[in-house]
Design goal:
Elements (H helix, E strand, L loop, with lengths): L1 H59 L5 H4 L5 H14 L5 H20 L10 H5 L1
Helix pairs in contact: 3-4
Length: 129
């Protein structure tokens, strides 16, 4: 009877061990996936902000006055705040939401009422060609 009991207890422990190992393995794999995703987002953000953003800004200057384009660089913070919950699971604070609203309001005011004297000779036809 001792032999039978010891075998059944060994079977129980060997049955529980693979389950734990499998869940540990799944958890490890999930952590690796999250780490890869975080690195991919970090590097794509760095490339986008360091390379693509300036290139797009320079190209946009061909079609619009810097007095219109320059204030829109402030929208970067608005996008970060808007997408922080979706991308990193971080809920923006009330103060951050208010600040985003003020930034957007300022952008609209500058775009509508700012000095756009550089745009006098630019026509829609010239921009589209």
């Amino acid at each position: 009877t001792l032999d039978t009991n010891s075998n059944s207890s060994n079977e129980d422990s060997s049955n529980s061990n693979p389950t734990t190992t499998a869940s540990d393995h799944d958890l490890t794999q999930e952590r690796k996936r999250r780490g890869r995703r975080a690195r991919a987002l970090r590097y794509s953000g760095m490339v986008g902000m360091s390379v693509l953003n300036p290139i797009c800004c320079v190209l946009a200057m061909k079609y619009a006055s810097p007095s219109i384009l320059a204030p829109f660089s402030g929208l970067t913070m608005v996008w970060v705040i808007l997408f922080s919950k979706l991308v990193v699971g971080e809920e923006p604070s009330k103060l951050q939401k208010i600040a985003s609203g003020l930034i957007v309001t300022g952008e609209v005011i500058v775009a509508c009422f700012g000095d756009h004297t550089n745009d006098v000779d630019v026509s829609t036809k010239a921009v589209l060609n």
